[in-house]
Amino acid sequence: MDQQGHQQPPGKVSKTTTFRTARPRRLYEDVVSQVMELIAAGELPMGTRLPPERQLSSQINVSRNVLREAFRVLEERGLIVARPGDGRYVRAVSSIQIAPERPIDPVNLLELRTILDLLESRELIETQVVALACARITPSEVPRLRDAAKRVVTWRDNLEFHVVLASAAHNYMLERLVREQLELLHDVHQRQHYFSGDDSQRLLLEHHQIAESVIARDISAAQRLVRLHFDHTRQSLVGWSEMAFHQEPPV
Fold it and tell me: Could you give the dihedral angle defined by the CA atoms of residues 69, 72, 73 and 79, in that order, rounded to the nearest 10 degrees?
């Protein structure tokens, strides 16, 4: 809404939306924070076209290189999208049913949707990875895979298991894709909820089962277990998000 309380039409930046001069830290981080704050406050609704680079860099008082680095981070986090020849827009996504009676903050909604998209793409890739791994894993790779399946204390442990699994497929590009997607997922959201209580034990069991099915060269079982693994991860993520996004303020 504007200062008179009138609803702004979607897709336009309000004349009252103010970008402030960037604070002295890593300048691109300040720009990222500003855009996230404006999205969260509803001043940059989904579908809004951002001002042109030249105008925005002048308004924020940063170079266009700094602005582009901020845009890169925002695009990786799924908050904005670039349309060649048209500019950059706040990403528009469908709602996610977590707690229907309590709306999700727009930034959290965009980031959660990005995480779910990443998990979906990882599932598509890794079901094929395990099929190749079943056919191509060598005896010398078995101890390393079993060892990786035993550790899930940190995010790096989780990454290592999936990368070791991908390496058993003996396809460099697939291994690289798996690593890059996991690194991107690492950058997008907090990871602590993966490694507490029941989730940690679940991951250990599922990693073990996937590893053993690959070692046994059971393609059907390996693919079924990978799909189940991602189903459980999505359920865990949405459950954690409900707590994180909808906590009542302390009294």
Answer: 130
